[in-house]
Amino acid sequence: MEYFTTKHEHLIVFKLESADVIFVWSKITYALYSFSTQYGVLFFYMEEKRDPISIQGYLEALQLPKNTATLDMVETIASLLDKKEKKEKATTVYVEREIPKITKECMTPVLYSLYGVVFSFELPSSIQQEVLIVFQHLKVLEKKSRCKYIFKVTQEGDFFSIYINGKQVHKNIQSSVVLGYLQDLVRITIYENNNFFIALHAAMFSYNNIPIIFPAVSGSGKSTLSAFLMQKENFNFYSDEVTLVDTEYNIHPLPLVLTLKEGSWKILTGLEKEIKEAKVYRRFDYQKVKYITPKNIATHTIYAQEAFMIFPKYQEGVVCKLQPLSLVESLNFLVNSGYHLHQRENFESLKKYLEYLATLKIYTLTYSRLDEAYITVKQLIDNN
Question: What fold does the segment set 196-382 form as a domain?
Fold first, then answer.
């Protein structure tokens, strides 16, 4: 890894040996910025000569297009040098919080386990059955397992509150969103209690033991594609919503239920019965959703260096197309889809993340038909 010196102590500037990219990391916001080498040179030029005339002349000398992207790049660099940085925009997948330990033996008759964390629920009768059905595939058969977390839900009138080991984390929420909040809390608890270095807002599968990560923003069709792929031969389901990578670059199964929004209920084949029988809930943003138990669940961790990373995007009427992405493009996509570094203030953790991304084979996948998307992904893996 090659480092560059600057006059601004709040910035660390470096270049990976494996990528033609200049990175700038801020000690103030912990945000990461990436530039092509050409724009990276512009970064240093602006550091020395800030007047607009010289910058304009430099852009002309480099024959850079005078378009919106170029102007945005100049503005970003200028704000970096002025210490007027904006916070990194990303989907929240992690919440810091201190949860007390259980001080007495858990007497709950039903226990659940996910990645070695044993937990249970204390629920009002009005929602008990529907919550337990959604988590039933994680039930622990061995009753001697020691419970570490109790997720307790209380009800007052039409509103609910959620506690973890006696500490309140949500209050005055409606019954239709309780299940979604519980799933998010379980994910966060797993992340906090294990040796992960990054959480990606992404679905995760393996195909013939080759890992495929599907990061995406909400509304991209990620969960719909996941529900289709999990029915296919040699595809194993790891996660629909959050992919956790540990410090040794292993990915672990996190098989909570799939969250299917209303638009996918009629187009998914093979799951008609499950979708018809599933109850309608609301997400935190109050979109209608149904929860479907995953199939072909992976039972082991998988080494994820040199994995495939595919950003799916459903677009009505388009021909299915794969497009390779550069590392800079991939970082921009990941910021939009959402990720969290476990120690984002630690520069070594950031370097590890970038070095990991540089090993991946990264693409976008634009599609309108699920069967074509499946065939395209399968052929991509088979041909590599």
Answer: Rossmann fold (3.40.50)
